[in-house]
Amino acid sequence: MPCIFACSIEWNAWDMALDLCLKQLPSVLRQTDSGVREPVYEPSSFFADQLTAFSVWLGENSLLTTTLEREHLKQPEQLPIVLQVLLSQSHRQRALDLLARFLDIGTWAVHLALSVGIFPYVLRLLQATSDDLRPYLVFIWAKILAVDRACQIDIIREKGHEYFISTLTDARSSNGVRALAAFNLTCLVDNYTRGQDELLSVMPRVLDILNTPTTFLYETSALFLWCTLFLGQAWRLNGNACEKAVLIRAPDTLQTLLATHDSPEVRAACAYALGTYLSSSASDNELSERRTEQSKEVATVLVRSLNDGSPLVRQEVLVALHHFLILFAQTPTSGTNVASNPNRAGNLLNKTVFYKVTEAIQTVASSDPSHEMVQLTEAVLTRSLETLNTTFFQWCCSRFRESNTIVRDLGSGIAQQCGALYSEDEHDCFARSGRYWRNHCIRTNPSRLADFQHMRETMFNSRVSNAIPLVLRLHPYEDYLAVANSNGNLNFYEFDGTPCSKATLKVGAVGSIIDTLDFINAHDRTLICVGTDTGAIRIFDESTQRLISSWIALYDHQTQLHPSHHRSAAKPTANTSISTAPVKFSVDWNQQLCRIHASSSNIDYVALWDVERERCLYTMDAGTSGGVHCLLSDSNGYCAAGMGDGTVRCFDTRSRESAVHIIPSPTPLNRHSSIVTLKFDGNDRLISISNMGQLRRWEIRTGTSTELAVPQTSQHISSADVHSTGNVLALTTANALQLKTCYGDLLFDIKHSKFSQVSCLSFHQYRQLLAVGFKDGSLSMFTGKTNSSSL
Fold this sequence. Notes:
The protein is of the alpha+beta class. Among the domains are: about 45-60 and about 75-415, Leucine-rich Repeat Variant, CATH 1.25.10; about 555-570 and about 580-710, 7 Propeller (Methylamine Dehydrogenase, Chain H). The protein is built from 26 helices and 28 strands. The strands form 7 sheets. The protein has a 4-stranded antiparallel sheet with strand order 1-28-27-26, with no helix packed on it. A 4-stranded antiparallel sheet has the order 2-3-4-5, with no helix packed on it. It has a 4-stranded antiparallel sheet with strand order 6-7-8-9, with no helix packed on it. Helix 5 (about 80-85) crosses helix 6 and helix 18 (about 265-285) packs parallel to helix 20 (about 310-325). The longest helix is centred in the middle third of the chain and has 20 residues, at about 265-285. The N and C termini lie far apart (about 75 Å). GO terms for molecular function: protein-macromolecule adaptor activity.
């Protein structure tokens, strides 16, 4: 027999409430005796005091960060009373506010609230008409439905879904609140046929929202995400919903969003919804001609999105195409290979679409830089009729089972009305403040020209074993450098040559060559951006060395070609000329604009990528000038490209539609010359260095150039770099390392035969440090006089 819990605290609370009521009895009796018909009664403060006590409890416990801390929380004594207060009109809004904050603690709080009987109270409140309660109610129901889907039966039976529909379609509500309403409606149709049938009429209204033009990415992305997922769940395994979707042209809207929307999550949701549409069609025995044609159109659009900049989008697109292959393939024996059996396509489909989809998937298997994508592609091609499940929808829903949803996901919704604040971890706060102050000191003490006049060389004791250093970068704020070698690995060294504790990072695929290396967010938590000669970009977390994102940067959306299909370039031999030099991939990372410019020596355009949106904004035609050999951009939106014929192209990328060509295409300066490096010199001027030693100053506004009086060398320059603040350039020839000013004056010249073996060099962004890599695997650091003590 279960033990009886102690009730003394509850009885004491009710005794106090009774005492407060009886305290007013003498005053009420005196007023009655004096002839007052309606005695003045002062409402009891009991419920207000209980809400205050509950608010204090939330303030002490709602910011616990670990799951273990939340699971060991003591149940708040005021929670049952708060539920009773929900029926009191005078305290209802405050009670809903506190209840929303309580549920935002996480799954533990939701289960506790359900166990004490919250369900009938909040279900009854869905009949309320007050607009002030909408943000609280939709949020509370979002937390409940994220944990317990069984509630959808009662909500549909009691017509509670009409409350969410009215909130979603109310343009006066904030986008955050409307997104919550869309999430609730999505939960109501998730694997629930009656819910799908009841909410079938909502699909046109959702399409109206998705067709509304908007430029506010952050305010509308959550709303568009859950509207799209609603469509995907509404027609999942529901033939009637699919037929209506075709009539109202819902797949067409999703195809447009998949190709144009700025949010990667929205694009992934579009691919997911189109995949559920195709899988629902595959479950039907017979398809109408309209749905057959619609499915072919969907597949064609999905193929183009296989080269999206977001791995999340590409995975959902691949799963959707898998449903397309199942839809139009006859049932073969288990384990049949799709690629080797294209003739099994259905009679209603032109087999050219089937071939196109299969070929596109095979191309992904051979070129995609994401290992997960390659594995998924192999599963699609070798196990065509086995079901491939995607967890994207569950991943999106899992956010509402976490804590602090108010602050993280609802910037314009309930968070502002509740006055929610984000409390950063104390340790992280102090660490970030320390980094910012250190970075400020480094930036405000840049290197001077005089600091480079006396450089001292320090040879590293460690060598890059059995590999050639190809690219190296010095971290602008931390005391280490990253070295990319010919084995496709990244090694890390401190400035004194000591190997860092960081493990060797495997970057490129087998046979690929690392051409570019950059630090992203170096001022805070560093990411490493690596580019290979295949046109692939990979971004790694520096601390965990985990792959964050990867994509093919030089995929031409107009010609549907990868870099390998562009103008060919032979591998170098002892007798090859410059025209047969190996392909060089060029990447420029712009920290201020969060953009990447990418090009290659075997193509004639520059691709502009928005890294935050993970999509290509547009490509810029550079003309037939021997390909692009180096790139540079600034915070004003200018992008300069050094060409293989010694000329420079400059573009103004501030336009969202297309770039403006500033510097035209002049006559090639030297057919044997190509631009090695570029640097903005302020006042709309640009400095270029060619592989023949030409130093030119370009006027961006006029497009004219002037060659500086610098003696040209008959020897090719193997490597060159320009310091960002010191107005100093370094270059290596067959027998010397030279440091010059940006005006051509020689600072010093070190002659030695070892410089014929230089493979790469790089300046520190702020300090007077120059790192040099040699083909024998050795590394050297040249330091100025103010840095000598630090090495």
